[in-house]
Amino acid sequence: MKKIEAIIKPFKLDDVREALSDIGITGMTVTEVRGFGRQKGHTELYRGAEYMVDFLPKVKVEIIIADEQLDQCIETIIDTAQTGKIGDGKIFVYDVERVIRIRTGEENEEAI
């Protein structure tokens, strides 16, 4: 099993969720996060004062999937979240040793 963490632009979340649902990915965890990479921050004007916004709003999508779904899931996220501009985000892939559904005690693939 694999865990995918995708950091994407917030306005792309609904499109990514729908696209993943279309390929059979039904469960995910979404967190509003803030950060920066090469995009750095930017300056904004508020009540006449200019200030630096260091951390930009992003969304982190976490998905646990079976190994055979990995490539299709990654391709779907890239195709849907990509704008071609700086700050599109990143995808991280981790190995998952064990998953347990608390309610039923099911484990691993049966639990996801």
Automatic annotation (TrEMBL):
Q: Where O-UMP-tyrosine occurs along the chain?
A: 51
Q: Name one GO cellular component term.
A: cytosol
Q: Name one Pfam family in it.
A: P-II
Q: Which BP terms in the Gene Ontology apply to this protein?
A: regulation of nitrogen utilization
Q: Which GO terms describe its molecular function?
A: ATP binding; enzyme regulator activity
Q: Which keywords does UniProt give here?
A: Nucleotide-binding, Phosphoprotein, Transcription, Transcription regulation
The record's annotation in SMART domains points to: P-II
Q: Which InterPro entries match?
A: N-reg_PII (IPR002187), N-reg_PII-like_a/b (IPR011322), N-reg_PII/ATP_PRibTrfase_C (IPR015867), N-reg_PII_CS (IPR017918), N-reg_PII_urydylation_site (IPR002332)
**Record NCBIfam families:** PRK10858.1
| Quaternary structure (record) | Homotrimer.
UniProt similarity note: Belongs to the P(II) protein family.
Q: What is this protein called?
A: Nitrogen regulatory protein P-II
Protein's organism:
Exercitatus varius
